[in-house]
Design a protein that fits this description.
heterodimer, A: Immunoglobulin-like, Neutral Protease, domain 2, eight-stranded mixed sheet, 35 strands, 17% strand, globular, B: 308 residues, mainly alpha, nucleus (chain A)
């Protein structure tokens, strides 16, 4: 553990940034381009600072000046193309390690960057007086694919009239996509931000708006922002558009912005923000750290909520009117999340990636406190249970989630998470789902800490961290206090121990330093003689994603005489625990039974075991362990637990358990819960579905009308005519949610023929028919959408006769009725669209279900039209989901292609991300199944997608990696032909000839370096023979990367591996010089990278050789090695260049790849 | 289905119309026709007197019409004069005054009457003056109450002044109303969507019969979020209606909107302490000039750069 080390913050850079100016003086919506400059004020921390590494992606850099002197620079981005283009490698292990290496190579947290600026020698020869340097960089962005998103609706009118806007976005530190900076959360500085925009637009950015000034022609205005609080570049954002402005009526320093026409919605949606502010400020006993706050609602948002220093960017779809019920809590939650992150995440930033969990944990935790206060304890506990279930399911399925990874010595072999197909070393290599689970676990662990040290101490710790940071933030840079605003795991833990005086080391070790969750199995027996409960708790700690738990566990036993808590000690070898019971069984005495909360209730005890005083038993009722519990107790105990335990978590657990007991008693318990209005509505909703399942299991013995029908009639239908539902009145939200859910659950009922009972279907059709919302003050769009879902649920597979073609004539009569409704709903939606088009979404799902069940012909064209850009995003996602499903069911290569094309071209980043996510969830085939879809072209296409096609969006690239993993697994995809030998070796004659089967344009790659900078000549073949390097195995590729990295870390000697080219800015002729610089690199698209990587590969081989890293066990693979080495010595350099140019055109318009064009070195 | 009262009324008027178009058959019409005929004979005689040998039918008709109008006017005028003097039957002087008023020289009348070439017209055939058909009596006529003298006119038929239900009792049965509303709405919706589908582009779920279950084609819009987020006018309208009718519930819901589930007893108190949303704009309005928000400040003019 290197936690001791990170006690103080040590910058990985030889300089310290103190202030940065960002000036964007032109934003062209027509061309989607941006022009501007940045100026960084830096203090060198070493003598002779000769180069400055900054982060910059996709920016075209025109000139760099350091203290008014032109400075040469290199721009190299190895993440553009992770593995070089011609590589025939197709295994994911190889890719993942190369990708990790590429990200590491430009990682700002390690002091690296894509942009390397050479400080003019005049400046560093000045000797040891460490002077301030001002680095001035002019740049432009043309049609950015990441970082900034332009939304330009294609209508008539000026840009402002069209509602065109642009905003910054990104996953983690992605600011480098839109201006050059030190893109690290740990490099804080003050900011001056200037944006010149059209006079009809507003530029919203971080910090205080100091003034707005017209330009001389009065057509534009410049917004001047100043952010005096030291802030990391990733927390800087921008939104420009013709926004409507709303000053918060309660807090005048808070301003809200929305797109034209949405102001009424904005007013309503923001009307409670002040409550959230008050809440956080109160619990943290700390004022909101920034002097102002801005919320901006934009279209085509990357994520629903993103927080930046003093502002948050939200999806415009969170806005709603007062008529909408369902969206209201969701929007409030999003606001609360955004605000929590303002304190922890924006104001207090993380020291390193390994400390991310602390910030995510704290912001998630205080957000939870807000939920508890606003939505109530039941909602809060329900949420915690949901989050716990999510993380447990994920870890058990995918393997552990590690909150605080440590990389001792940087050895890849010490990979703490070998079960994952990606590296967790960088946020940018992380799968999105993993990151979501990571955040979920982080806040759960914070809750565990709270359980341990009490909430009071917890809040004191937060307060302490905030006050430290806020003292530091007001200091000048020279005081060296700014690092107090960075939070590390160590500092956090130290603060906890200082405040609480408690040692939470074991807890941290268990949940933070270690991955995995605990899986308990519990069962019990009651020993009547000893009046003792013999509880057995076993653990599974061998499966993936599990860990062993040793320590205390709380068990709550409800007996006849009351509820009793016992704390048991889970130890290495003890499985059985004896718990003495307090009460003798005595069921004859009629007495009220005291519950945990002090309430005393009458119970009908006839169901229970006469010999035992036990009503129910709960293991770890407070969820103070990240665990899954499978507990066995009798059905009547679950029923008692459901009816009488007041904790919603217990009730929900009981409901899930009762599914296994389809008996009249379970039915009764569930029905009682359903009717009980004091019961939490989400429990009642869950009971609906359980009841449906129980009814299906009891179908042969079921008595009376279909489950829930009479209940629904009693609750929601007219007294005089029970077949007609009352006119809608959703004023009581609990019953509204129940009214929505019951039909959906009822539609799951099946009769003996496994069909949905006729009277249930008619009942639902009647609900639709008699639905009357005229007197309601709330919209019924969600309710109607649920009724359509109910219709969908009622569908069962059509009886098919030899795959006959589905025609209108042979349509089942019931299905015809359903289809009539869906047609009418879908058509009405065109005339009177519902909020968020919920009805269209439900209809599309219903149609897909009709197709899937063989009632109507399976046809993707309808979904394709709804998936087009220009429909509301929810509709698009629903249509795409149907298409993904179609692709899987019909194994359609065309649709898969169509989807993949959309992944590459769609303007909305969220949609692209979603498509890949859905393809992963519902894959057309998997690594374990055979499919005609799995072919070489698809492998190549996906490889290209993750290798270079998604370089502008970290999240998307990781999605592509996930899909590749789902489809092909970690190793070489099975559908590929056996690896061809690039060369046919004739060992006897010691001659090598080109394998004629290899296509020249793929295989061509000059190995010999055209430059004399190559240190080691290619070893002769016969010596290579002895080495067992197979790049396709995990081990070797990792070793290769690792070694590669080591090489980079070494002080390089002039002209060692790479040719360097210093591009001079402006019109000056570029010149070549050999420098001391070694570009940290991995296989990269450009020519120079190519040679670098290949040469280093050689060195890696050598090092293996020398270090006796032999791999005897791979001898048999000997033949396949060196596949793409030494292939073609004879190709001309010119051809090489040509291809290079082609490559660069394919995937990037960045100057980084275009560099080779201008490179004089290549023509040398 | 059709209201019997209405339909019978309809057929009645239709019958009357049909009767008039046929040859005169009713006694009243016969009477009028005979008088007209006599008038026509008189006109013809006058024409002959003046020396005409023949006349077009249309000309005769016109003259007859003029004559009739003239006589009618004399009668009306004379009647008016007589009534002016509070009498009910006109006397000769009334007629004379009427003639004078109409610009007729009365002195010439005796001479004209005694002219030699005067043609004698046969007396018109005696026809019975038409009997006014007896009004359909509906109900008992009311007798005069005590305070009204008996010589006053009788009350008219009761149906002329009291409501006569000619339609069926409106259906107030809840079930039927709901049924009807639902059917009606569904019919309207179906007709509307069918119409839209017929007149525009459609998509179909079936390949064999593209007219079955036609779906209005999905058309991408340029700004999709607007229609998806903004409530439709219809919804706004209903909201206004319910708002005005359910003023009392308003404050209720205002409080509950935020807290869908409120297990926290403190939350209610919290809410009640909040100023009602109605109060916000007013406070805002009053403070509008006080709000110092940088985004509300006026944009500054560029500084004029002083050269040199």
């Amino acid at each position: 553990m290197n936690r001791k080390k990170d006690k103080g913050f040590e910058s990985p850079r030889p300089f310290k940034l103190t202030h940065q100016v960002v000036c964007i003086n032109n934003i062209n919506f027509q061309r989607k381009s941006v022009i501007g400059y940045v100026e960084l004020t830096i203090f060198p921390t070493v003598v002779n600072l000769n180069r400055i590494k900054l982060n910059s992606k996709q920016c075209r850099i025109y000139r760099v000046r350091v203290n008014e002197l032109e400075a040469p620079f290199i721009y190299n981005d190895p993440t553009l193309e992770v593995c070089h283009h011609e590589s025939k490698q197709r295994n994911l292990n190889y890719f993942s390690s190369a990708y990790t290496a590429a990200v590491s190579a430009v990682d700002p947290d390690a002091g690296h960057g894509e942009l390397v600026i050479k400080v003019p020698s005049e400046l560093w020869k000045q000797g040891d007086d460490l002077k301030v340097l001002k680095v001035y960089i002019e740049f432009s962005l043309d049609q950015p694919k990441g970082g900034l998103h332009f939304v330009v609706p294609d209508v008539e009118g000026s840009m402002a009239e069209r509602g065109a806007h642009v905003f910054s976005f990104g996953y983690q530190n992605s600011t480098r996509f839109w201006f050059p900076c030190v893109d690290s959360y740990s490099e804080l500085c003050t900011w001056k931000l200037e944006f010149t925009v059209d006079a009809s637009m507003v530029a919203v950015s971080c910090g205080d708006l100091v003034e707005t000034i017209y330009t001389h022609d009065m057509r534009k205005k410049t917004f001047h922002y100043v952010l005096p609080i030291p802030t990391a570049a990733p927390n800087i954002s921008l939104a420009v558009g013709p926004f409507e402005i709303l000053v918060d009526p309660y807090m005048h320093e808070v301003t809200h912005f929305c797109l034209p026409q949405l102001l009424p919605l904005l007013k309503h949606s923001m009307s409670y923000l002040h409550e959230i502010f008050e809440f956080y400020e109160e619990i943290l006993t700390c004022r909101y750290p920034y002097s102002c706050f801005k919320t901006v609602f934009v279209d085509e948002a990357y994520v629903q909520v993103s927080s930046y220093a003093s502002m948050s960017i939200f999806s415009t779809n969170l806005l709603h009117s007062a008529m909408i019920i369902d969206q209201t809590p969701q929007t409030r939650r999003c606001l609360a999340q955004a605000l929590a992150q303002q304190f922890f995440g924006c104001f207090i930033s993380r020291m390193s990636w390994a400390d991310e969990w602390v910030l995510k944990g704290i912001s998630g935790y205080i957000y939870g406190l807000y939920l508890k206060k606003t939505f109530g304890v039941n909602e809060y506990r329900h949420w915690i249970k949901g989050e716990l279930d999510k993380i447990v399911d994920y870890e058990l399925k995918m393997g552990g989630v590690l909150l605080h990874p440590t990389f001792s010595g940087g050895k890849e072999k010490d990979n703490p998470t070998p079960h994952l197909h990606f590296s967790i070393k960088h946020p940018h290599t992380l799968s999105w789902e993993y990151y979501k689970m990571f955040q979920c676990k982080a806040h759960l662990v914070m809750r565990l800490i709270e359980n341990r040290i009490s909430m009071e101490f917890m809040l004191q710790v937060f307060n302490k961290l905030l006050s430290l940071a806020s003292t530091a933030s007001s200091q000048k840079y020279q005081s060296h206090m700014w690092s107090q605003m960075l939070l590390s795991t160590h500092a956090f833990l130290k603060s906890i121990s200082n405040v609480s005086g408690k040692d939470i080391g074991p807890l941290i070790k268990q949940w933070v330093d270690q991955s995995g969750v605990v899986k308990f199995f519990g069962s019990f027996a009651f020993n009547r003689k000893r009046n003792v409960l013999e509880l057995e708790i076993r653990q599974d700690y061998t499966s993936s994603g599990t860990q062993k738990y040793v320590g205390p566990i709380k068990v709550t036993v409800q007996e006849l005489d009351g509820s009793f808590n016992h704390t048991l000690q889970i130890e290495e070898n003890s499985l059985k625990h004896d718990i003495p019971c307090h009460s003798k069984s005595r069921r004859n005495k009629k007495k009220k039974i005291p519950l945990m909360n002090g309430e005393e209730v009458d119970m009908d005890l006839s169901a229970m075991d006469a010999d035992s005083p036990l009503l129910w038993i709960r293991i770890d009722p407070d969820m103070s362990i990240l665990r899954k519990v499978e507990f066995e107790q009798a059905d009547f105990m679950w029923q008692y637990q459901l009816r009488y335990e007041r904790d919603v978590v217990a009730q929900e657990e009981a409901i899930s358990a009762l599914e296994k007991f389809p008996t009249p008693a379970s039915r009764l318990a569930l029905t009682d819960i359903l009717e009980q209005e004091q019961c939490f509505y989400k429990v009642r909703m869950q009971a609906c579905f359980c009841l449906a399942r129980i009814a299906n299991a009891m179908v042969s013995t079921w008595q009376g009308p279909p489950a829930m029908k009479s209940l629904f009639t009693r609750m929601f239908c007219c007294k005089s005519c029970p077949n007609i539902v009352k006119t809608n009145n959703f004023i009581n939200f609990q019953s509204y949610f129940l009214q929505k859910t019951m039909p959906v659950a009822m539609a799951l009922l099946r009769d003996v023929q496994n069909l949905c009972p006729k009277d249930v279907l008619n009942f639902i059709l009647d609900l639709i028919k008699y639905n009357d919302n005229r007197k309601n003050k709330f919209s019924d769009n969600y309710y109607r959408a649920e009724l359509i879902e109910a219709l969908t649920n009622s569908l069962t597979p059509a009886i098919s006769i030899n795959n006959e073609v589905r025609t209108v004539d042979n349509l089942n009569a019931d299905v015809r009725l359903i289809l009539e409704e869906i047609t009418r709903f879908l058509n009405m939606e065109k005339l009177l669209p519902s909020f968020r088009n919920t009805i269209t979404v439900s209809c599309l799902r219903a149609i897909r279900q009709l197709q899937k069940n063989g009632h109507i012909p399976s046809d993707p064209s309808l979904f394709k039209s709804y998936a087009q850009y220009g429909h509301f995003v929810d509709v698009r996602i629903a249509a795409l989901e149907a298409l993904v499903d179609y692709t899987r069911v019909e194994r359609s290569a065309t649709e898969l292609q169509w989807l993949l094309v959309m992944v590459q071209n769609d303007p909305a980043h969220y949609v692209r991300h979603k498509i890949l996510g859905m393809l992963c969830k519902n894959p057309p085939f998997t690594k374990t199944t055979d499919s005609a879809l799995c072919n070489e072209a698809l492998v190549d296409q996906l490889w290209k997608l993750m290798n270079s096609g998604t370089s502008h969006d970290w999240r998307l690239r990781c999605d592509a990696v996930n899909l590749y993993y789902t489809l092909f697994g970690l190793t070489r995809p099975s559908c590929l032909p056996l690896p061809e030998l690039g060369l046919v070796l004739n060992l006897k004659e010691k001659k090598a000839v080109l394998n004629p089967t290899i296509k020249p344009e793929l295989g061509v790659r000059i190995f010999t370096c055209p430059h004399s900078t190559q240190l080691r000549p290619a070893p002769p073949f016969n010596t290579m023979e002895d080495e067992d390097i197979d790049m396709e195995t995990v081990h070797d590729s990792q070793a290769f990367i690792h070694h590669h990295l080591n090489l980079l870390e070494r002080p390089s000697t002039p002209g060692k591996y790479s040719l360097q080219l210093w591009l001079f800015s402006g019109k000056e002729p570029p010149s070549v010089e050999q420098t001391m610089l070694t570009m940290p690199s991995t296989p990269a698209p450009s020519f120079s990278k190519e040679t670098t990587s290949l040469s280093s590969k050689h060195s890696s081989e050598h090092s293996h050789h020398h270090h006796h890293h032999h791999h005897e066990h791979k001898k048999k693979k000997k033949k396949h090695k060196h596949k793409h080495k030494h292939k073609h010595k004879h190709e001309s350099k010119d051809k090489e260049k040509e291809r290079e140019r082609d490559n660069s055109h394919v995937y990037s318009n960045s100057p980084a790849s275009g560099r080779s064009l201008r490179s004089p070195s290549l023509s040398d | 289905m059709a209201d019997p009262a209405v339909s019978s009324g309809g057929s009645l008027t239709a019958g009357a119309r049909g009767g008039s178009s046929k040859a005169a058959s009713s006694p009243a019409e016969n009477y009028h026709l005979a008088r007209r005929r006599t008038l026509q004979v008189a006109v013809s005689a006058l024409l002959t007197e003046c020396g005409f040998e023949s006349a077009e039918k249309a000309a005769v008709e016109t003259l007859t019409e003029m004559m009739q109008s003239y006589i009618t006017e004399i009668g009306r005028c004379a009647k008016a004069y007589c009534e002016h003097t509070a009498r009910s039957i006109p006397t000769l002087p009334d007629t004379v005054v009427a003639l004078i008023e109409m610009g007729f020289n009365v002195d010439t009348l005796p001479v004209y009457a005694k002219r030699s070439q005067r043609m004698v017209i046969t007396a018109p055939p005696v026809t019975n003056s038409p009997v006014t058909p007896k009004a359909l009596s509906a109900g008992q006529k009311r007798t005069h109450p005590a305070h009204i003298p008996s010589h006053f006119p009788e009350f008219p038929d009761p149906h002329t002044y009291i409501k006569t239900p000619t339609f069926r009792e409106p259906v107030s049965d809840y079930q039927v109303v709901r049924e009807k509303a639902a059917t009606q709405r569904r019919d309207v919706e179906r007709a509307l969507t069918r119409f839209m589908a017929k007149t525009g582009e459609t998509q179909s779920l079936f390949k064999d019969d593209i007219t079955a279950f036609p779906l209005i084609a999905a058309r991408p819009s340029t700004i999709p979020y607007l229609s998806a987020l903004l409530p439709s006018e219809l919804e706004l309208q209903t909201l206004e209606e319910t708002d005005s009718s359910e003023q009392d519930d308003q404050t209720d819901s205002e409080n509950t909107t935020g807290n869908i589930i409120n297990d926290d007893p403190g939350a209610d108190k919290e809410n009640s302490m909040l100023p009602p949303s109605g109060g916000v704009p007013s406070t805002k309005a009053s403070e509008d000039n006080v709000i110092d928000n940088p985004y509300l400040r006026p944009v500054k003019k560029p500084k004029v750069r002083r050269k040199k």
